[in-house]
Amino acid sequence: MTQSVAESSPDLHVSAGFGAGPDGDVEAKSPRQLFWRRFKQDKLAFAGAVVIILMIAGALTAPFWAHLFHHPVNTQFRDRTNIYGVPLGPTGTFLFGSDQLGRDLFVRVLYGAQVSLKVAFLATGIEVFVGVVAGLVAGYIGGKMDTVVSRFMDLVLSIPFLLLGIALAVSLSPGPSASQWLVVAIIAFFGWPYIARIVRGQVLSLRESQFVEAARSLGAGNTWIMYREILPNLIAVVLTYATLIIPVNIIGEATLSFLGVGIKEPTPSWGNMLAQATNFASQGFAWWFITFPGLALFITVLAFNLLGDGLRDALDPRTGR
């Protein structure tokens, strides 16, 4: 009896999305199942995802912890400072110690996670939207449109990031609430060209594909082809890159806040807490003041980088996992 192609070619099971079931039967695997299988095999990426979930949960539950310990985020406790304004160390009640004003550092680190993650997610969302639209239009339309968009991207990337941030912060002097939106705008303004360049490069190769030619021959317009034919093929690339730029945006917010031109007091931010802590860490005491905000920043950035690397490998069928 003649064998089927699948039976005579076991290697075809992997390339075609088939796998052996519990009883040895061949079962089809969807792209989602293949992605999940590859992602679970990457232990570091999976650990990064767990850390990110825990950090987001801590940020969302910050008011709960403040209420549990009876330590509002900006309340100053006189018994946690001395006449020199020196912060006091961790105890059973103040888990991370206190800052120079007697405020609970554990609660402020959690509220700082709220600010840092909110700024990073908002800035990333704006970058992705603007970058995808600009890259799609420039790559597919081409010609003068491509030239104008590309030159504007070069112009944006030539502007010093910190110089513009300092100039805007000094000239506008925003309050604590408005400073968050200013930081989001600055980060997003400098971030979208990177996504636009990646999307443009992908579109340049996809616009000559057979499925695009088929849609064009059937009378589909440019808008339909860009957003219904090409865009779905860019989701994996955009998702991976967005995951990788979130930690960059977190560092960007922390840098601006550390320099005093980002999130303003009394709103807690990992950046402005580290700036305050350096005044005491340089003198050899109050190690907790710089350690806990610094660890929160380091662990969060590392977790997002590990997750981004794992998503890139899991979404790339050439990894062979």
Description:
By secondary structure, the chain is mainly α. Helices cover 69% and strands 2% of the residues. The protein has 14 helices and 2 strands. It has a two-stranded antiparallel ribbon. A hairpin with a 5-residue loop joins strand 1 and strand 2 (26-28). Helix 12 runs antiparallel to helix 14 (287-315) and helix 13 (270-281) packs across helix 14. The radius of gyration is 25 Å and the shape is elongated. Mean pLDDT is 84; it is low at 1-28.
Would you summarize the structure shown here?
With 321 residues, the chain is mainly α.
Mind sketching the topology for me?
Elements: H1 5-8, H2 12-15, E1 18-20, E2 26-28, H3 31-41, H4 43-60, H5 62-68, H6 105-141, H7 143-157, H8 161-172, H9 176-206, H10 210-217, H11 222-230, H12 235-258, H13 270-281, H14 287-315
Antiparallel strand pairs: 1-2
Helix pairs in contact: 3-14, 4-6, 4-14, 5-6, 6-7, 6-9, 6-11, 6-12, 6-14, 7-9, 8-9, 9-12, 10-11, 12-13, 12-14, 13-14
Distance between the termini: 34 Å
Oligomeric state: single chain
The level of helicity is 55-70%
The residue ranges in which pLDDT falls below 50 over 5 or more consecutive positions are 1-28
Tell me the overall shape.
Answer: elongated
Give the neighbour order of strands across the main sheet. Answer: 1-2
Following the backbone from N to C, one meets helices and strands in this order, namely HHEEHHHHHHHHHHHH
Count of distinct strands: 2
Largest sheet: 2 strands, antiparallel
Total DSSP helices: 14
Radius of gyration, in Å, reads: 25 Å
Average pLDDT number:
84
Structural class of the secondary structure composition?
Answer: mainly alpha
Which percent band covers the strand fraction? under 5%
